Amino acid sequence: MAEDMDARIAQLRDFFRHDPDNADLACALADALCARADYAAADAVLGGLSVESAVDSGVRFRAARLALISGRYEAAEAGYRQLLASGDDSLAVLHDLAFSQLCLRRLDAAHASIDQALLRFGREPVLLILKARTFAISGEYDAGIALLDEATTAAPEDASAHGVRALTLFDAGHQDLAETAAATALALDPGQHEALLVAGTQSLWRAELDLAHARLQEALRLHPNSGRALSGYGQLQMLQRDLPAARVTVENAVRAMPDHIGTWHALAWAQLLQGDQDAALASYRGAYEVDRNFADTHGGLALISVLRGDHAGAELELKRAQRLDANSPTARYAQSLLLQARGDEAGAEALLDGLLQDKAVPAREFARQLKLRLQSGEGRR
């Protein structure tokens, strides 16, 4: 299959060399390169066209889609709006316009674009999937799952429908159902993005690090700007003790999706494990700005307070965390350190032992690594 694609690309390149301003040839070559995830090369093909050829609607659509893939969401939205203004209100244009707005977190605009497309084209599975994504971002998981159930019923061979359903189920806490949906998606398309995220993250949680590496790396190969894939890969690097690389990866993940609270927490752990309490505090504050009622954020703020000797501040944050979720792992860890600081070694050890037996491998391992840093005196700087 790969050899066939290479031969196809070589043939198209040869044709294109002899006719370098042929818009149709440029589009065919860009499509082939995108199928191989060589987005930079595809962008170069379209960018090298003359002004006259570059205004072709097919070229402009592909240029906008490449901007979308590469994370240049403002440019993508502008490109799709220009296509609409020129009279191209196709399903693909309306869908991708809404997707770019979704990536920009302009949810009202995305809903409006999707509703316009639904009115014009009916309940196409691709539109149901996209609308479900908007619900998932808003935390309306049940509404999203209902739409995805409809999409998978209408298009049972659509890998994206199963993959987005897997991620929505995963975020809603339905791990077994998410695993089944991800397996279905990957059987249909081994490169399905959301399914790779679910499968990779679940492998990470099970400490199946080689499998997690393969799945998350494939997700990043196909979607190099995927915030979720970057976040998972950064946590994998942390488990592998490559803290400098992990911190850079998770910082990139935060830039890609600044409203994903779990990634702020992952960044704080990476910073704590490097002894950078000031940066970790800033990350927990970033998480707090996303959601002020998330237990682990208050647990993290408590943890920083304990490390700085502010026991009263730690107690206040721990009360908030425990009121929101009594099982918050970060709050439990902060509580164990507070007990230790007050001389209750037995209570601290009991709490820590419970945390270190937690099924969520990243939290368990990060706590273990930080414990070792603190014992050596490195983590209190």
From TrEMBL:
SMART domains: TPR (SM00028). Gene3D superfamilies: Tetratricopeptide repeat domain. Pfam families: TPR_16, TPR_19. It comes from the Bacteria. Coiled coil: none annotated. This is Tetratricopeptide repeat protein. The lineage of its organism: Bacteria, Pseudomonadati, Pseudomonadota, Gammaproteobacteria, Lysobacterales.
